[in-house]
Structure formats: structure tokens, C-alpha cells
Amino acid sequence: MDPRSIDDLARRLASSVPEGLSAVRRDLEANFKAVLQSGLSKLDLVTRQEFDVQAGVLRRTREKLEALEARLAAVEKPKS
Q: Which residues 6+ apart lie within 8 Å of 1 measured at CB?
């Protein structure tokens, strides 16, 4: 995930703190950022590029499987 997105999300969370607590907003923003980074680092995520590559591999594999299934069906078809 883009670090700027984490910064932006932490900033938006901190800005939702009531006005009376504005003195702690900066600390909260830093804490929100740390919690978000920690939580996201525990997730098993891939980049969009990696996902697209794997989606392409899967698509080609399915196409080959369908072609092989069609060939097998033609071979197994009883001759009349």
C-alpha cells in the first residue's frame, strides 16, 4: 500500500477527533499511522502488477485446459 495513502488515512482519522482534543491530534495521527502500518504489514498482500501477472497465467492455463478437454472429448467420442 502506498505510504501516502496511510498518511492520508491517519490524517483523516486524527481530524475526526473532537476539537477539544486538538492538542493530542498530532500524537493520535502518529499512533494511527503506526497501527495502520503494523496491521497492513501482517496481511498477505501482493502488488497490482503481481496480481495481473498471476491472473494472466491463470487465464492461459484455463484456455489450455479447455483445449485439452475438447481434444479428449473428441478422442473419446464413439465412432459411428
A: 40, 45
* Distance (Å, whole) CA 27 – CA 24: 5
Written as nine digits, the cell of 3 is: 505510504
Q: How many whole angstroms separate alpha carbon 35 and alpha carbon 20?
A: 23
C-alpha cell at 79: 465412432
Q: Is the pTM of this model over 0.85?
A: no
**Cα 25 to Cα 21: distance, rounded to the nearest angstrom:** 7
Q: Within a 10 A sphere around the Cβ of 6, how many other Cβ atoms?
A: 16
* Beta-carbon count within 10 A of 36 CB: 17
Domain spans of the chain, in order of start: 1-44, 46-80
pLDDT at 64 (0 to 100): 98
